[in-house]
Amino acid sequence: MFGTADPVGQTVQVGNFYLDVVGVFAPKGTVGTVDFDARMYTPLSTVLQYYTPSRFARFLGQRVQTIYVTVADPKKMSDTIDQITLLLETRHKVSATAPDFTITTQQNIITTQESTTSAFRNLLAWVAGISLIVGGIGIMNIMLVSVTERTREIGLRQSVGATPNDIRWQFLSEALLLSVIGGLIGILVGVGGAWLFGAAGTLKTVVAPSSIFLAFFSAAAVGAFFGYYPANQAAKLDPIDALRHE
Questions:
Q1: Does residue 246 sit in helix, strand or coil?
Q2: Is the pTM of the predicted complex or chain greater than 0.70?
């Protein structure tokens, strides 16, 4: 706002009133979507006197809704909470069983966020599991149709010396190829989407290398698991019946 000049002593217009700058906080950065470097702090009396819309609202609004307390020694956190609780109960004239206020620590906020993140992670895991099952069923159906359409080919290969194990590995390899290609496409889309989300938004996205390997091997495992049944069915075909198939 003031370029390279010292802000202290300068005047800023807030609404219809001019306020003097008496200090500048050290840079704090952005947490989530809150930019703490874009905030202005004024005395409560100034807010009540100049920025409350009416005298009636001013009369009702002369109360503090939130108080931030900093504890110098984290080991005294519990004692500080007890002292604040007793003080507010005394001033508000309420009992400990029915308080009209709540006390929240940063650890409570972190715990809540961790539980929310854990629930969201579990939900995504279930969605991913269901997606893998659906994709595996799709691969199995495709391979079963392929076995049916290529029955004469299977019989011809068996007639020139291919063993059931050769036929099984042929179709199992095709199922693995389908799933691996799909997994690679999914990895490219996922990494690209995460990069675009991070570049376009304010939240930073991080792609863990372990998640890439997990996605790749999960796709390969799904292909092997759901591709084994069609491959086994192809290996069990009788060469004579396969050659006669129309």
A1: coil
A2: no
Token couple for 145: 């149709």
**What is the distance between the alpha carbons of residues 77 and 50, in angstroms, rounded to a whole number?**
36
Q: How far is CA 36 from CA 25, 26, 40, 42, in A?
A: 10, 10, 9, 15
Which is nearest to 139 in space by CA: 209, 41, 224, 211?
224
Greatest pairwise CA separation for the chain in angstroms: 99
Tokens of 189: 């889309």
Q: Cα(50)–Cα(32) distance, rounded to whole angstroms?
A: 31
Tell me which residue has tokens 């799904």. Answer: 222
Question: Which of 171, 205, 168 lies closest to 190, judged by CA?
Answer: 205
Band of the pLDDT at 19, cuts 50, 70, 90?
very high
Question: For residue 27, what are the contacts with CB-CB under 8 A and spacing of at least 6?
Answer: 37
Q: Tell me which DSSP letter residue 65 carries.
A: S
